[in-house]
Amino acid sequence: MPNFKLVEESAKKIINMEVRGASRIARFAAETLKEFAKTVEKDFDENMRKASEILMNTRPTAVSLFNAINYVMMYKGENDEEKKADAIRRAEEFIRWVDTAKQKIGEIGAKRIKDGWTILTHCNSSTALMVIKTAFRQGKNIEVIATESRPRYQGHLTVKELAGEGIPTTLIVDSAVRYFMKDVDCVIVGADTITVNGALINKIGTSQIALCARESRVPFMVCAETYKFSPATLFGELVVIEERDAREVAPEEILNLGVKVRNPAFDVTPREYIDLIVTEIGAIPPEMAYVIIRERLGYGLEMGELKVSAKHFD
Ligand SMILES: O=C(COP(=O)(O)O)[C@H](O)[C@H](O)COP(=O)(O)O
Questions:
Q1: Residue 171, domain extent
Q2: Which of 20, 155, 209, 299 qualifies as a FRET site for 172, CA 20 to 30 Å off?
Q3: Where is the binding site for substrate, in residues?
């Protein structure tokens, strides 16, 4: 029997943010599809399609979820048995992509961090933290300023992780970024999505930090695996910004006043504010986003026609 309960439970974990952060969500979706595929005995295409839809309708902004599902769903085979084996193989391949990319980004990004620097980070990006931790492990004497990242306080996860590594870390409220920017040598953040024009979609508040960094001439570095680049934006689609429950922001007492409360989870940082995007295949300017979408993900504009041919990870 196809285990849809497993898929529903995974979807719930993504929605309630028990599993969060773009790369963890992507990895978890691939793992879930892999485990689900093992339980399918017949009508493989139909069952996998249903499971994919359930996972897809969890959080709308991070393209990594789409890319993960899409990667697994490009399985091939003459019959259900072959399709199942290929889907499982592709899921495992995607999971390896997630793990190896983070390591490589850590190594590449760490080269850009100088001894003695103070780095500001926002939210909780496992990829941005990999860069910071790699630099620290190389013996660089660095400090981190981490924003608390309201309303979900992912900054608390960040400071726990950094303190666990022994990295000197200061926690600040989100609105104190400009106050502290004079002490910052580099901003390093993660990504939920990179669009074809090189814009970054990341945790709400990222664009204000980028603006502030630009004002102070502080370099702004984004850490993004290539599966965080969005092919759909090449075809003219806009990235949907998730708007979460008002109760995450305001208590009942305020909500009862009938006041409108808005809670967008992400915002857009235009490419002009980004100095560098560190991917697992190199540190690139945001202007190279189309090249990544074409060469790495296999979606391109060919002879005036839209051509879709998603590639295998190597
Ligand atoms: O904005 C967030 C998390 O938002 P949320 O907590 O709402 O999921 C992170 O910066 C990116 O997802 C990148 O994370 P990673 O580098 O770990 O993929």
A1: 112-236+265-308
A2: 20
A3: 59, 202-203, 228
